[in-house]
Design brief:
alpha/beta; 2 domains; 24% strand; Rossmann fold; 229 residues; 5-stranded parallel beta sheet; 8 helices; 4-stranded antiparallel beta sheet; Arc Repressor Mutant, subunit A; 42% helix
C-alpha cells in the first residue's frame, strides 16, 4: 500500500514509518498543513493518516479537501484529542476510522488493512481476476495454482492494476503510485515500461492471459475481459 502520514511528532512519525515499511508499505510524510495539502492534491494514496493538530492548519480541513478531490482514498484520523465532537465531525466528513493516541502500532496496522480491504477489495483478503489470485495477507500471487515470483514493485503494480481494472492509467499516474513524490527526481519514466514488461512476461509464463494493454501515447490498461488469441 501507498500511505501518507500527516503527523508533526517526529518520534511517533519515525515509529509509524519503521513499523509500516517493515510490512512492505511505501510511506510518505507531511509534517504540516501546507505540505499535506500539496501532497494530497498532487499524488494519490491508498491510505492517508491524518493528525488533527498540525502546524499551519487543521487536519479536519485536510480531510475535507481530500474527500472533495479524491473521495475513494482511505482515511484514518490519528489524534491525541479524544473529543467526541472531533470524532463525529471527522466521520461525518468522510473519515473511514478514528484512532486516539496513544495507540499500539499493531492496532494501527490492522485498521489500515481493514480500511484498505473495505475500500478496494470489497472486504476480501484475496483479489481474484479470472485465473489470477492476489493474496494480500501473504503478498503472494498465483495463476491458477502456480505461484508467480514477483518483485515488490511488480506485486504492487499488479495490485494497483487490479484496483483500476478496465481503466486507462497514464505512465505518470503509475510512476507516482510506484515512487510517490520521488518521481520528480527521475530523468524519464522508462522504468514504468520495464516493470510492466516484466510483470506481463511473468504472468504469461505462469499461464495467465495477457491482460495488460498498451494505450498508445497515453499509458496502460488492465483489460480483465481480454483473452489471448
Amino acid at each position: 500500500m501507498k500511505i501518507l502520514v500527516i503527523e508533526d511528532n517526529q518520534d511517533l512519525l519515525e515509529n509509524i514509518l519503521t513499523y509500516l515499511k517493515r510490512g512492505g508499505n511505501r510511506c510518505e510524510t507531511a509534517p504540516d498543513y501546507d505540505t499535506a495539502f500539496n501532497k494530497i492534491m498532487s499524488f494519490t494514496y491508498d491510505i492517508v493518516l491524518i493528525d488533527l493538530m498540525i502546524p499551519g492548519g487543521s487536519g479536519l480541513q485536510i480531510l475535507r479537501e481530500l474527500k472533495s478531490a479524491r473521495p475513494q482514498t482511505g482515511t484514518i484520523i490519528i489524534s491525541a484529542k479524544n473529543s467526541l465532537d472531533d470524532k463525529v465531525t471527522g466521520l461525518e466528513i468522510g473519515a473511514d476510522d478514528y484512532l486516539t493516541k496513544p495507540f499500539q502500532l499493531a492496532e494501527l496496522h490492522a485498521r489500515i488493512k481493514a480500511v484498505y480491504r473495505r475500500n478496494n477489495l470489497n472486504g476480501d483478503d484475496v483479489v481474484q481476476i479470472n485465473e489470477i489470485a492476489i493474496h494480500t495477507k501473504k503478498m503472494e500471487t498465483k495463476v491458477n495454482e502456480t505461484v508467480v515470483d514477483l518483485t515488490p514493485k511488480e506485486y504492487d503494480l499488479l495490485l494497483y492494476f487490479s484496483s483500476n481494472k478496465n481503466h486507462v492509467l497514464s505512465k505518470q499516474t503509475i510512476a507516482e503510485h510506484l515512487w510517490g513524490d520521488y518521481v520528480g527526481h527521475l530523468d524519464n519514466l522508462d522504468f514504468v515500461y520495464q516493470h510492466i514488461k516484466n510483470l506481463r512476461k511473468k504472468l504469461i509464463q505462469a499461464g495467465a492471459n495477457d491482460y495488460i494493454e498498451s494505450i498508445y501515447s497515453i499509458g496502460y490498461k488492465f483489460n480483465a475481459n481480454r483473452r489471448s488469441s
